[in-house]
Amino acid sequence: MTGKKMAKVAVIEISRNRNQKRLRLIVKKPAISTSITIFTGLLESASSSNDALQILIKISDALQFEEPEMTEAVRKLSEHYKREQESAVRVKILALFGDFAAETCYDGTLLADEVLGLLKSETSPKVICQGLHSLHKIGVSQSLPPIHVTKVVLAARNSLTSQSHNVQRHALLLLGAFVSVEDNSVDEEVELIGRYTDSQDSRVRAQAFRSILTLGSRGVDLTPKLYSRATDALKDDYECVRKEALQLVYELGIRHPEHMILVPDSDMEMRLVDAAFGNVCSAMCDLSMQLLGGMTAVGSEFLNQTLDKKLMSNLRRKKSLHERNLENFTSGEWSSGKKWADDAPKEFLNAASISLIATGACGALVHGLEDEFLEVRTASVDSMCRLALIHPPFASTSLDFLVDMFNDEIESVRLKAIYSLTKISKHITLREDQLETMLSSLEDYSVEVREGLHLMLGACKVSTQACLKLVVQKVLDVLSKYPQDKESAFGCLQRVGQKHPDLCMALTPQLLQDHPFFDSAERDVEDPAYVCILVMLFNAAQHRPPMLSLFPETTIRHYGYLRDTMPNFVPHLMLRTVVDQTQITGATGSKQFLETLLNNIDAAYSAPRARQALLEAAQTNLDRLAEIDPALSGTANFTAMFLGAQLLIHQLQSCIAPKQNKTPSRESLNLLMRKCLKLQNLFSNLTKDDWLLVKQISLRASALHLVIVVKDRSQSALAPCQLLLHIAADISVFLQDNPEIAADKFSTSILQALAAISDPKPGRVFWEILPIVQSATPVVTPRVNVDIRMCTARILEPCFAASLENQVKVTAGLIAAVPLVADIENLQEFQRQDLRIRVKYPDQNIHTVVPRLRDVKRILTESGEEVNNWRLRTTILLSHGVWTEATQVEIFVCLSVRPGTELELCKS
Fold this sequence. Notes:
Elements: E1 10-17, E2 20-27, H1 36-44, H2 49-62, H3 67-83, H4 87-103, H5 108-119, H6 125-141, H7 146-159, H8 165-178, H9 186-195, H10 202-217, H11 226-233, H12 239-255, E3 260-262, E4 269-271, H13 272-282, H14 289-292, H15 300-305, H16 321-330, H17 364-369, H18 374-390, H19 392-404, H20 411-423, E5 429-430, H21 432-440, H22 447-459, E6 461-462, H23 465-481, H24 486-499, H25 501-512, H26 528-541, H27 553-565, H28 581-584, H29 587-603, H30 608-628, H31 633-655, H32 666-681, E7 683-684, H33 688-712, H34 718-737, H35 745-755, H36 762-774, E8 789-790, E9 792-797, E10 815-825, E11 835-840, E12 846-849, E13 856-858, E14 869-879, E15 890-898, E16 901-907
Parallel strand pairs: 5-6
Antiparallel strand pairs: 1-2, 3-4, 7-8, 9-10, 10-14, 11-12, 11-15, 13-14, 15-16
Helix pairs in contact: 1-2, 1-3, 2-4, 3-4, 4-5, 4-6, 5-6, 5-7, 6-7, 6-8, 7-8, 8-10, 9-10, 10-12, 11-12, 12-13, 18-19, 18-20, 20-22, 21-23, 22-24, 23-26, 24-26, 25-26, 29-30, 30-31, 31-32, 31-33, 32-33, 33-34, 33-36, 35-36
C-alpha cells in the first residue's frame, strides 16, 4: 500500500421489493495497488523452490485481489503444483486455496474441485494432510452443494487407509463435519469412525471421539452401544483421549438416562445416567467437575454418595439361601448334610469389585471442594448448585459444604459459594450453627462479599427467633464498622422482614425497645441501625397487619418520614388517613391514561395549534406519571421524549417554511439532536414499530439539521450531510430486514431523493430535500408499550448531601482519590464498555474518565437470574490548581454514544 490517502465514496442504491423503496449505503473499497497476476507471473519465472515459496508467502500476506483475476491465478497455481517437486511448496499452494475460500469471494466449489483433483495423484502424507485441512476450511467457510460434499466425504474415507496418523486424523475431522446426518447409512459411518478409537496413535483416538461428538451435535442419535467403548478409553494413558471419551460418556448419560446397562462382573443392571455419573466422578483428576452439574437426572443415592468419602454400603444385591441352593441344584451340586456349612457359597465376593456405584463417586464433590486448584473448587461449587436446584433434598444435604466454602482463601470462590447458596435458598432453612459460620464472613474486607452475603441472608429463611436476632444483630454490628454498606443492609433486612413476618411480630417490642409500662426515649430516625430495624418491621407488617398495634406513636411518626424519603424500602401501610398517590395509580389506570393522552394527540393531527398545546401539556403529565408509577416509567419517559422531539421539529420547521425569515435557535437544534440520540441509545425492549418510529424521527431531525446549517452558512455542512446519509442507510437496511413494516411518506420521499443523487455533496443534498422538509407532515405518535425500559443511573457515593466532615478537600497541585459507587439500571451488555465518568471543575474544565470493565459488575437477584442492572465501583482522581475559595466539583455518569458525544445519566 502506498502512503497516499484513500478516499471513500458513499454510493446510495435503491431497490424495489414488495412495492417498497429501500436505501442501501455502499462504501467503496480503495483500489488494490497489487494484482495477483503479478505474483503468478513471478511464480512462473521462479528459479528455485525457495523463490517460489517466498512468492507464495507474499500472496498469502496480501489476500485482497479482484475476483476476475482469481480464476486465472488458481489455474496457474494448480499448474505450478503439478510440476513442483518440493512438498513444502505444494503444501503452501493447498493452504492458499483454503485461504481464498475464507478471505475472498471466490467460488468454494471450484476450489474444492481443484484440491480434490490435485490430491488424486499425491503421495506425500504431509501434502495430503494439508489438502484435507484445506477441504475442511473450504467447507466451513462456504456452503458446498451436496454433490461436492459427497466427493469430500469419499476422499476422507479413502484417506483413512493411510499409514500416517496426521492423514487419518484430518480424514476423521472431515467425516465428522460433512457426513450426511439424514442418510440411512449414518450409523455405519459412526461405526467406521468408532473403529479408530482403538488406533495405536493417541491423536487419532482423540479425533475419533471428537468426530463422534461432532456428529452428535449435528443431530445424529448416538446409541448407547458407544458407552462401553467410551468407558474403556477413560483408562487411556493420554489426557487428550480421556477428555474426549469423558465428554462422550457425559453426552450418552444425558441422551439416554433411563437405558439399563449391566454392572461389570455382575448380572445386575443400572441406569445409564447413574453409571455415567459414577465414571465422571472417577475422572476428578481430569477436571470433570464442570460436567457433573449437567447430569440432573442422576439418582438421589448417587448424589448423596458424592458428599461422603466412605462408601455407604456394598451396594450389591445379596442372594438369599434359597437362590443359592437353586443355583447349586441347577448346576448339579447339592448339600449332603455331612459337613458343617456345606451350603455356604463357594465363590468369594470382593465388595470393592462388585458395586453399583463406582468408587470414584465416593466424596467426589467433597474432594473437588478441597482441591488445591481454584478452578476445580469453583466448578465443584457450580455443579453442586446446579444439582441442588433440581434435587431439593440434595440442597439440604449440601448446605453445610457450601457454608464451609465461605472461608475459602480466594475471593472468587467465596462469591461463587455465596451466590450458589442464594440460588438454592428456596429449598433450605438455616440453622443457628450454620448462621454463625455465614455471619462471620460479613466482616470480610471485600465489599462484594459483604453485599453478596446481604443478598443471600435476604433470600434465605431462618428457623427460630434466636436465628433472626442473630442475623439482625450481626448486620447492625457490621454496619457500624462499614457505614458505606447502608443501602445493602437496608435491602437485606427489607427482604428478611418480608420472609419472616411471624418471627418479626414476636420480636417487635424487643427490637423497638418498647417497655410495656414506661415510655422509651425517642430514637434518632437518622441512625442507620434504627432505620434498618424499622425497614424490616414495616415490611413484615405489610404481611401481618396486627403488627401495627405493636408500634408506639414515635414509630408511626417515623414511618411517615421514611415512607417519603425511602419509598423503595418502606412499603405502604394503613397507618395514615391519607392514601399514597402510588397506591391509587395502578398499572391499568396508568396505561389507560397514557392511551387516552396519545389518542387525543392523534385526534388533533390536522390542527397544528391544538396539537402543539397538547404536546406541551403531555410532556408535563408524562414526566409526573414516570415519577408516581415506576412500572411505567420507561414507557412514560420514552413517550415524553418522543413528543418533545416532535414539538421541537414543529418549532424548527416553522422557521424554515417558505416566506419565513426567522432564525432557528441553535440551542433548540442541539436539544433535538440529543433527544434523538437518547431515543436511540437509552431505551430497550422496543418493538419493531417503535424502532421504526425512532429511526424515522431521527431521519427527520437530521434532514432538518442539514437544511438549517446550510441556510445559516456559519459552519460546515459536511458533518450533517454525512450524518443524514448514515441514518438513511440505517433505516433502509432496517426496512429491508423487516419487510412487514413500511415507512411513512416523509421517509420514503427522503430515501427516493437521496437515491437519485449520484454525488451526495451537502449543497446538492440540500436542494433535493429542502421542499420535502418544508412540506413535511407531523410525525405519527408511538403506541403504548409497557415493556420499555430506560437506562438510568444513581450515584450512591459520594453523596450530594454529604456533611461537612465527609467532604473531600483537594490540595492544590496534588491528587485526591474519591471513591465512586453508582447503580446503573437497564444497561445493555454491549453498552458496558461505553460508560464514562465526567468530572466538571468550577472553572468549567471537564475531564472524562473511562472506568475499567472489571469495575462494572452485574447486580445479581435472589433467583440468580441475570438482569441488566449493574454496579459501578471505582475510584476517581481529582486534581486542580490554586483556588480562592471552597466550591463544588460535579461528577457525572454518562454513556458514550459516539466520539465526542456523551449522554448524561446522573450527576452528583
